[in-house]
Design a protein that fits this description.
This protein is an alpha/beta fold. It has three domains: 4-21 and 38-199, ANL, N-terminal domain (Rossmann fold, 3-Layer(aba) Sandwich); 272-472, ANL, N-terminal domain (Rossmann fold); 476-617, GMP Synthetase, Chain A, domain 3, CATH 3.30.300.30. Helix content is 39%, strand content 22%. The protein is built from 21 helices and 27 strands. The strands form seven sheets. A five-stranded parallel beta sheet has the order 4-3-5-6-7, sandwiched between helices. Helix 1 (4-14) crosses helix 2 and helix 2 crosses helix 3 (72-83). The longest helix is centred in the C-terminal third of the chain and has 23 residues, at 595-617. It catalyses: a long-chain fatty acid + ATP + CoA = a long-chain fatty acyl-CoA + AMP + diphosphate; (E)-4-coumarate + ATP + CoA = (E)-4-coumaroyl-CoA + AMP + diphosphate. Residues 11-438 form the AMP-dependent synthetase/ligase domain. GO terms for molecular function: 4-coumarate-CoA ligase activity; ATP binding; long-chain fatty acid-CoA ligase activity; trans-cinnamate-CoA ligase activity. This is Long-chain-fatty-acid--CoA ligase. It is an enzyme of class 6 (ligase).
């Protein structure tokens, strides 16, 4: 396993009849059962797609774009790039046309595979004029062909492209281990996306490392395992999980493209493996707790007793399967059923997960649960927790196989690796580390120093190497009194208020106090309103002064409980009924806040809050 292509090719030879990629087709507006293609069938399609690309003029090293939601065609195009020494460049499905235009130009993409829903966007974009050909994931229309022809491009349906490859077959051009496999653009929280260069060696090393990690499990992963893919394939987490599943000859089923009906896909697919970001698990937790709250009082009490009983034995060192089979039978099998009934392993990544939710899912899901930490620059994995180790709750585990981690001092924030506890900026090195940022040597040399990648994340490490993410180095600023504020830490603390869905804390060096924009939790806001005799829609409630006063009281209580310093207390807020969303360009696809865009969006409201605070002090 020296290249990503070898990982897939060997599996196609070893497991030709195994189910590889699954999807749901629609009939009368409803999704049907999963249909599957085998490793042998996908391998044949990969050869056809790769042959067609070379026939149209692609050469080893050409950049090939892929733009669309997760589906079998996405993976087929990706593997064709691997097999013919082409460079796969994913275009984020959630970044919007502006970023897609930028990536097409910046990466100098020649050919792009496009989902039908994105076709109009690509055809109308200025950057499309540099493209040689567009290949649709499905069919094309006469209008699309005419529009493409007018701009000097060719456009092909998926079946037309496969047929071209059949008519002009060419043997694969296997890549070398240090060849570029993919340029994966990350959205970042400011500025243009940056292209992370990952080699075939990076990905092959990651697969080998995960193989060794999975040996820690009593139940080994087999060809019968099934993964539900709904995180963007253009994002490193989903891409790397699928690479590993292909290595094992296991199956990947794609959701139908709507996160709101993900549960229906899960119930139909019955996956054994689930990976998600914290927001996914927060929603699962909310759904389960809502169902528990609707139980009769004695049944709710019984559930809570069984929870405490199983938790006690898990903390005493028992595996989740043996801690309380009775509790699993009487209560938690219903939780497992909500996740399809076959889940064996759950992984959370992308951001730190609440310790309460992690503990809850470890106890109730009847599955192994673990958190991991990594970035696109580290091939998606730098550290990972171990199964059934309750002492690792709230952490992201230890350095992953083939990775080294150290902490570096951040004096302006008071973080010192040599203090107790050891804290500092997380630095990573190893064979899964990226080669650099595409066409950006300045940023590369700034990020990789002495062979260590400086992540910008601040961690705390125990003497035995267990890592916890506690802060973000860049998101600090000084208030006018000269005090530094670590804003991400404060947002994490204040989010513990049940009335808050999300919060953005703001301050600057010209002022001495902090203010915040709060997106309230809809259900909890309605409960508060009902208890206080207030009526109206959620939007109406968010406009009430009573709600604003209540939120400020909750923020004050949390600040005092967590012993925050006086300048870390929030003095004024703006209440926004709309969550911070990608549509307004306020967050990245992994839900990290874009602070410059947030400031631009709420600038007028912030100035108004500061003005009111100044008048109150008079």
């Amino acid at each position: 396993m020296a290249t990503s292509w070898e990982v897939f090719r060997f599996s196609a030879e070893k497991y030709p009849g195994n189910k590889m990629l699954g999807w749901r087709e629609f009939a009368n507006g409803r999704a049907g059962p999963y249909k599957w293609k085998t490793y042998e069938q996908i391998y044949e399609e990969v050869l056809h797609v790769g042959s067609a690309l070379l026939h149209l003029g692609a050469k080893p090293g050409s950049r090939i774009g892929i733009y669309g939601a997760n589906c079998p065609q996405w993976i087929t195009a990706m593997q064709a790039c691997n097999g013919y020494s082409l460079i796969c460049v994913p275009l984020y499905d959630t970044l919007g046309s502006g970023a897609a235009d930028y990536i097409i130009d910046h990466a100098e993409i020649d050919f792009v595979f496009v989902q039908d829903k994105k076709m109009k966007q690509i055809l109308s974009s200025i950057s499309a004029r540099r493209l040689k050909s567009i290949i649709s994931f499905s069919s094309t229309t006469k209008e699309q062909k005419d529009e493409a022809r007018n701009t000097g491009m060719n456009i092909y349906s998926w079946n037309e492209f496969l047929q071209m490859g059949k008519e002009f077959p060419l043997e694969p051009i296997p890549p070398r281990s240090l060849d570029i496999c993919t340029i994966m653009y990350t959205s970042g929280t400011s500025g243009q996306p940056k292209g992370v260069i990952l080699t075939h060696e990076n990905i092959a090393t990651y697969v080998k490392g995960v193989d060794l990690y999975m040996e820690q499990f009593e139940e080994k992963m087999t060809v019968d395992d099934v993964y539900i893919s709904f995180l963007p394939l253009a994002h490193i987490l989903d891409r790397m999980i699928e690479e590993y599943f292909f290595h094992k000859g296991a199956s990947v089923g794609y959701y139908q493209g709507d996160i709101n009906v993900l549960r229906d896909d899960i119930m139909e697919l019955k996956p054994t493996f689930l990976a998600g970001v914290p927001r996914v698990f927060e929603r699962i937790h909310e759904g389960i707790m809502k169902a528990v709250s609707e139980l009769l009082p004695h049944r709710r009490m019984f559930f809570n007793l069984l929870y405490k009983y199983k938790l006690y034995w898990m903390k005493s060192g028992y595996k989740h399967k043996k801690a309380s089979p009775l509790a699993d039978l009487l209560a938690f099998r219903k939780v497992k059923a909500r996740l399809g009934g076959r889940i064996r392993l759950i992984i959370s990544g992308g951001a730190p997960l609440s310790t309460d939710i992690e503990e809850f899912l470890r106890v109730t899901s009847c599955a192994y649960f673990s958190q991991g930490y990594g970035l696109t620059e580290t091939c998606g994995l730098s550290s990972v927790g171990f199964p059934d180790e309750m002492s690792l709750i709230g952490t992201v585990g230890v350095a992953s196989t083939f990775s080294e981690i150290r902490l570096e001092e951040v004096p302006e924030m008071g973080y010192d690796p040599l203090s107790i506890p050891s804290r500092g900026e997380i630095c990573v090195r190893g064979k899964t580390l990226f080669s650099g940022y595409y066409k950006n040597p300045e940023l590369t040399s700034e990020s990789i120093r002495d062979g260590w990648f400086h992540t910008g994340d601040v961690g705390e490490m125990s003497p035995d190497g267990i890592l916890k993410i506690i802060d973000r180095k860049k998101n600090i600023f000084k208030l006018s009194q000269g005090e530094y504020v670590a804003v991400e830490y404060l947002e994490k603390v204040y989010c513990f208020a049940p009335i808050i869905e999300d919060i953005w804390v703001y301050g600057d060096s010209y002022r001495s106090t902090l203010v915040a924009v709060v997106a309230p939790h809809e259900d909890n806001t309605k409960k508060w309103a009902s208890m206080n005799g207030l009526k109206g829609s959620f939007i109406d409630l968010c406009g009430l002064q009573e709600l604003k006063h209540y939120i400020l009281q909750e923020l004050k209580a949390i600040a005092e409980k967590n012993k925050l310093r006086g300048f870390e207390h929030i003095k004024g807020i703006i209440v926004d009924a709309r969550p911070f969303d990608i549509e307004r360009d306020l967050v990245t696809p992994t839900m990290k806040k874009k602070r410059p865009q947030m400031l631009k969006c709420y600038q007028a409201d912030i100035e108004r809050v500061y003005k009111n605070l100044a008048e109150e002090r008079k």
